[in-house]
């Protein structure tokens, strides 16, 4: 991208040879998506959405459908605070009219489910599934009372919310079969995306859950909270494994591909801190002949910045 153009979001295409760049033009003059050839170091294609989106708004979320047909560009609208999503269809020509959807949500609380659907967690606790083809809401994931249906169709207002308070983070398994949602209500929920039903609710945090992530092989869920703890859970049954008291609010979290390190970003007294936890497997003694194995979290080092 030319040095005088500001790129605020990017994502890699499936061939690992092209990258999608998101650029918001100055003074509300529209949004441009650039398909960039990494080997040739040149732009292959530019897609423009000319509508003004505000003086200070910029693309902060960018993702592709699994078949690389659709590009979803998202920004937080400074006028009404809503998340705005612009969907570009890469199979159409450069003069297309992109689909646009606005939701009362934080723009990054979004996950692409497959070739044409997206799920977004809203400030009112909904998990709204919407279409990249039409830019319209389709249905919700909801937490039903015993015996009630888990899927409500007909729009966002048709069903009760998945969470009691704002959805703060989403994590989707690599095969898109499981979705983890975190919420300000202090819970995480695990959803079976084949049936779109709630599998189980993870409880233990005593304040807002601000972030969550899945391990590379989808064995573990890791979560960070305003209760100043990091917790590790097992995905297959929702079992709590261990926790670490950090002494700070945790608002971003990742687990390494080897599952040996958790990296988190926290805040304490307006001072941000990067913390790295080592996952150590220890053999615990028991009366049985065999020895059970469970992870334990140690803090090797951390840094302020």
TrEMBL record:
WD repeats lie at residues 160-201, 202-243. Keywords: Repeat, WD repeat. The keyword Repeat applies. SUPFAM superfamilies: Quinoprotein alcohol dehydrogenase-like (SSF50998). InterPro entries: Quinoprotein_ADH-like_sf, WD40/YVTN_repeat-like_dom_sf, WD40_PAC1, WD40_repeat_CS, WD40_rpt, WD_LIS1/nudF_dynein_reg. Residues 286-305 are annotated as: Disordered. Signal peptide: none annotated. The keyword Cell inner membrane does not apply. PROSITE patterns: WD_REPEATS_1, WD_REPEATS_2, WD_REPEATS_REGION. Residues 291-305 have a biased composition (Polar residues). It comes from the Eukaryota. This is Uncharacterized protein.
């Amino acid at each position: 991208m030319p040095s005088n153009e500001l790129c605020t979001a990017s994502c890699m295409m499936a061939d690992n040879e092209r990258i999608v760049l998101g650029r918001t033009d100055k003074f509300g003059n529209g949004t441009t998506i650039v398909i960039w050839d990494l080997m040739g170091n040149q732009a292959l294609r530019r897609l423009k959405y000319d509508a003004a989106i505000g003086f200070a708004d910029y693309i902060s979320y960018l993702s592709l459908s699994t078949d690389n047909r659709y590009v979803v560009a998202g920004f937080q609208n400074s006028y009404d605070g809503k998340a705005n999503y612009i969907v570009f269809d890469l199979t159409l020509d450069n003069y297309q009219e992109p689909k646009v959807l606005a939701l009362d949500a934080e723009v990054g609380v979004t996950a692409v489910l497959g070739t044409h659907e997206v799920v977004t967690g809203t400030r009112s606790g909904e998990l709204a599934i919407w279409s990249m083809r039409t830019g319209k809401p389709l249905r919700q994931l909801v937490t039903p009372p015993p015996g009630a249906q888990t899927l409500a169709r007909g729009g966002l207002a048709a069903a009760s919310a998945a969470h009691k308070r704002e959805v703060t983070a989403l994590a989707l398994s690599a095969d898109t079969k499981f979705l983890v949602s975190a919420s300000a209500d202090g819970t995480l929920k695990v959803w079976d995306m084949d049936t779109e039903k709630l599998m189980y609710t993870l409880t233990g945090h005593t304040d807002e859950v601000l972030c969550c992530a899945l391990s590379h092989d989808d064995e573990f869920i890791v979560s960070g909270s305003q209760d100043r703890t990091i917790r590790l859970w097992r995905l297959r049954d929702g079992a709590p494994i261990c926790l670490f008291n950090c002494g700070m609010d945790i608002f971003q979290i990742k687990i390494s591909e080897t599952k040996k390190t958790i990296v988190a970003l926290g805040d304490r007294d307006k001072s941000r801190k990067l913390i790295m936890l080592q996952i150590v497997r220890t053999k615990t003694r028991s009366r049985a002949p065999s020895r059970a194995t469970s992870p334990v979290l140690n803090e090797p080092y951390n840094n302020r910045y």
